[in-house]
DNA sequence: AGTGAAATGACCCGAGA
DNA sequence: TCTCGGGTCATTTCACT
């Protein structure tokens, strides 16, 4: 499905989506046309999901990351759907995973500071179908990457 | 520091970095020049950290997400530096946070399947300065976003 | 699947309000 | 800070290998 050239294109575009087709072509010893066609194919097959700008969270006053662990005491389809919809609409929640383990869900939340996280927790408390189990405050970010290894 | 127009530009580029300056200009009822200048300023001030392509993890055979929680029994500067460097060099580790709480670090790991996670755990076991405390398998992804709310 | 060339369109900059 | 306009460069398509 993906040959060596495709993988190299994906590796490079994951690091820098602003690389021109010409630059990619030079790097991979090809002309622009095949690179162009390959990128279009990777987009069409949705291997490339999109291109986004990444911001510095601290510089936009969302530098505090907190993980919020919640459980769902009454585990029904209605409660699952309801909770997941709410979470998807909350802009502070960057990520949410349904886990196999002690807690049912883990939310990664971006806030300005702990005070703002306190407000967030109050909103969570209003969601009847889940109970906040615990919070884990991030002291510092060791690694954040969007680059998936395609080797 | 950021006015309404800057915030709108950031909001749009976080969703789709392929928007042309012309399209942004039309959306915001301006000409291309001010949009161009503003984007250059946001890049220079590193509010925009970069532009990346996002891939579909399942389609590149990295569809299994696992959170790996580790603790560091002997908490010294040397051990911290050593561990953080190793983590940063591991391509399976997408994210790693130093936490205030029961466990010291949480790693978000992308693997093909549980078998591949088993191999990963064996590598973690070789790192002398940390002990794997627990793993949380992701059943499904409820939300994943790179868009930070700048309102 | 690749090259090369030509048209289309985006980026980028300077002059002026 | 903005508009307008033009030169330069990247993207996209196509005929051919």
TrEMBL record, chains A, B:
PROSITE patterns: HTH_ASNC_2. Keywords: DNA-binding, Transcription, Transcription regulation. One of its GO terms (molecular function) is DNA binding. CDD domains: HTH_ARSR. SUPFAM superfamilies: Dimeric alpha+beta barrel (SSF54909), Winged helix' DNA-binding domain (SSF46785). InterPro entries: ArsR-like_HTH, AsnC-type_HTH_dom, Dimeric_a/b-barrel, Tscrpt_reg_AsnC-like, Tscrpt_reg_AsnC/Lrp_C, WH-like_DNA-bd_sf, WH_DNA-bd_sf. Pfam families: AsnC_trans_reg, HTH_24. Residues 2-65 form the HTH asnC-type domain. This is DNA-binding transcriptional activator DecR. It comes from Emticicia aquatica.
């Amino acid at each position: 499905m993906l040959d060596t050239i495709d993988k190299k294109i994906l590796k490079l575009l994951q690091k820098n989506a602003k690389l021109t087709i010409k630059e990619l072509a030079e790097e991979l010893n090809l002309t622009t046309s095949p690179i162009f066609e390959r990128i279009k194919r990777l987009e069409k097959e949705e291997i490339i999901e999109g291109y986004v700008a990444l911001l510095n969270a601290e510089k936009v006053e969302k530098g505090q990351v907190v993980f919020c662990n919640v459980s769902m005491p009454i585990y029904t389809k209605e409660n699952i759907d309801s909770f997941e919809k709410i979470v998807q609409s909350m802009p502070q929640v960057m990520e949410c995973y349904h886990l196999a383990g002690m807690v049912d869900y883990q939310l990664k939340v971006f806030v300005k500071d702990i005070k703002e996280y306190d407000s967030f927790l109050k909103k969570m408390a209003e969601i009847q179908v889940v109970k906040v189990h615990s919070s884990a405050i991030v002291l510092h970010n060791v690694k954040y990457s969007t680059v998936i290894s395609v080797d």
